[in-house]
Amino acid sequence: MDFSAAYESWLNDNRLSGEAKAELESVKDNTKEIEYRFGAELEFGTAGMRGIIGYGTNMMNVYTVKRATRGLAEFIKTLGEGASDRGVAISYDTRLKSDEFALAAAEVLAANDIKVYLYSDVHPVPMLSFAVRRLKAVAGIMITASHNPKQYNGYKVYGEDGAQMSPEDTATVVGFIDAVDDYLEVTSPTDVQRKKFIKKMPASVDKSYYKELKKLTLSKRAVKECGKDLKLVYTPVHGSGYIPVTTILKKIGIKATVVEAQTKKDPEFSTVEVPNPEFKETLSMGIALAQKIGATVVFGTDPDSDRLGVAVKNFDGEFEALSGNQVGILLLDYILTRLKEEQALPQNAAVVKSFVTTGMAKAMCKQFGVELFEVPVGFKFIGEKIKLWERDLSHTFVFGFEESCGYLRGTHARDKDAVVASMLCAEMVCYYASVNKTVYQRLMEIYETYGYVLDCNVSIPFSGLNAMSEMNAVVDGLKTKPVKNFDIYDVVTMRDYSKNVKVDVQTGTTSEIGSPLTNCVYYELENGSFICVRPSGTEPKLKIYYSVKAHNKADAEDALEKMKDAVNKLIK
Questions:
Q1: Of all helices (H) and strands (E), which one includes residue 299?
Q2: Which of 87, 218, 272, 297 sits 20 to 30 Å CA-CA off 259?
Q3: How far is CA 414 from the centre of its chain?
Q4: Residues 113, 84: contact at Cβ < 8 Å?
Q5: Nearest to 416 by CA among 119, 143, 162, 167
Q6: Which one is catalytic: 146, 166, 284, 547?
């Protein structure tokens, strides 16, 4: 069925809601818009679905949510007796229609005699991940588009281990979804099914989550000494982090000053351009409040509270928004330092990071005698390492992080956790205050110890139905172009993650990477620097990552510009 026929089919179906019919009629004279809405089906990948909110097969709406959930329900039925009774935990954030989509998913599952644990209010990703594990649920659903602009929403599925569903299980679910041709098929439960199978998430789950987080504190004495005087500003940026972040800080003895205007659950995210704490602009209201009250640090979380942005004062007394890589190396240094000081660092301790995250982690882990593992982008791959090590006991997970402001200490959850990261960052500030030092001072000391590394990523936006194929074509083109250097930096090896091979540029010899497959080209440079190019899995952007090691910041910035020019010429 072509896009015009699909459009007409939806528009003339008496099962279509009045809202949907009105929206589709409003675009009847816009062929390009109709093609976007019905020229494809919203892809369900290993990160679930994510798309612009609206009606059509290529949009996020109640019909695409129900169709995906019908596929998930069929998958659960194949897992044997008892799987349906174990149930599915469902949470959602503050985005437009998140609560509606969560209820729609719950009703589809109930109509299939599958138990549901549904939160009665917004809860972040890490708490959903924890709930799946705590309740021994068979799966979890999180309605969110994370840090994307307000026009987006999404649907993420979690496996029984609390990590995002594995690629293998996802492929099976996709097969069941693809078998559903009728988007508008009614899948409502009876009143008996609704009452029997849709359960309110037990309040004890939240209590257990906070209890687990408190076990992960590392500097109780420093917090007791300095926490009461710490001036910390926090903004949830209209998202789901407000209650959990302020709750855990209060439980360890720190009172945060919140940006009141940004505590409102506002699906328009009206006070920011985008609700992404990676950007200093998103933290601007928090920084303004911090300057007003003389605060030391500013925290900000995204709508589903799996990402934490941090701003601290530099040597000039100005607030500087730290990158995800900088917060990551600060937390890595802090966690390993405190575990070592307390003689609690396991002999088989392991740290996991995505391969696009700062190259500094390698030298830092080596200094502490800790093994570092690299995985593809996506926190589910960090979750897979935790699962493996719990089974074979070969390593003990101590920290995992991604450059996109995602951090996890502990194994209570299997996804990024901005709540535990907020707790750790707050006590880290107290720890350094207790020895008359600032976090920024410690960051500069880390650079002095391990060498300066400038990490930067550039996003090139794509649009239209063919955005993903066009981005993949750019990456595929790079694999055919031999590159020996990027200006002043020689290439040592080129990794092709789509084939799981690494090529030595000098000799031409190849070896296996030993990694899950993903379409990505990664250039290892001579001094530990790297360049990586990959299409984003969550938005139509080609991502280019640079990690530049140099003697100092000025040299790194100069080298970065030369490398950017070289990459731009190569891509064009």
A1: strand 297-301
A2: 218
A3: 11
A4: yes
A5: 162
A6: 146
Q: What is the pLDDT of residues 245-272, one digit of tens each?
A: 999 999 999 999 999 999 999 999 999 9
The C-alpha atoms of residue 198 and residue 189 are separated, in whole angstroms, by 10
Tell me how far the alpha carbon of residue 318 is from its chain's centroid.
Answer: 29
* CA atoms of 72 and 65, how far apart (whole Å): 11
- Rounded-to-integer distance, Cα 133 and Cα 142, Å: 14
Amino acid (1-letter code) at residue 481: K
Which of 70-74, 276-280, 395-399 has the least mean pLDDT? 276-280
Q: Are strands 49-52 and 88-92 parallel, antiparallel or unpaired?
A: unpaired
Place of tokens 């301790």: 349
Q: Poorest-confidence range of 90-104, 392-406, 491-505, 506-520?
A: 506-520
On the question of pLDDT at 363 being above 90, the answer is yes
Span between the terminal Cα atoms of the chain, in Å: 36
Total Cβ atoms within 10 A of residue 28: 12
Q: Which residues contact 402 (CB under 8 A, 6 or more apart)?
A: 324, 328, 353, 354, 356, 357, 377, 379, 382, 416
Radius of gyration (Cα) for the chain, nearest Å? Answer: 24
pLDDT at 186: 84
Mean pLDDT of 185-213: 96
Q: If you average pLDDT over residues 547-571, what whole number do you get?
A: 92
Q: What is the pLDDT of residues 80-89, one digit of tens each?
A: 889 999 999 9
Handedness of CA 440, 446, 448, 453 (dihedral sign): negative
Q: Which residues, including other chains, have CB under 8 Å from residue 111's CB and lie 6 or more apart?
A: 187, 188, 189, 190, 193
**Mean pLDDT over all residues of the chain?**
95
**What is the percent of the chain where pLDDT is above 70?**
100
Residue 29 corresponds to which tokens in the numbers above?
Answer: 């004279």
Place of tokens 């392991």: 350
Q: Where are the beta strands (DSSP E) in 333-479?
A: 349-354, 371-375, 396-402, 406-408, 452-461
Q: Element (H or E) spanning 175, and its range?
A: helix 167-178
Cα–Cα nearest to 545, from 556, 534, 557:
534
Q: Cβ contacts of residue 422 below 8 Å, gap of 6+?
A: 234, 241, 245, 248, 249, 299, 301, 308
SS3 assignment, position 117: strand
Among the listed residues 394, 519, 417, 361, the one whose alpha carbon sits nearest the alpha carbon of residue 212: 417
Residue 16 contacts residue 184 (beta carbons within 8 Å): yes
146 given a catalytic annotation = yes
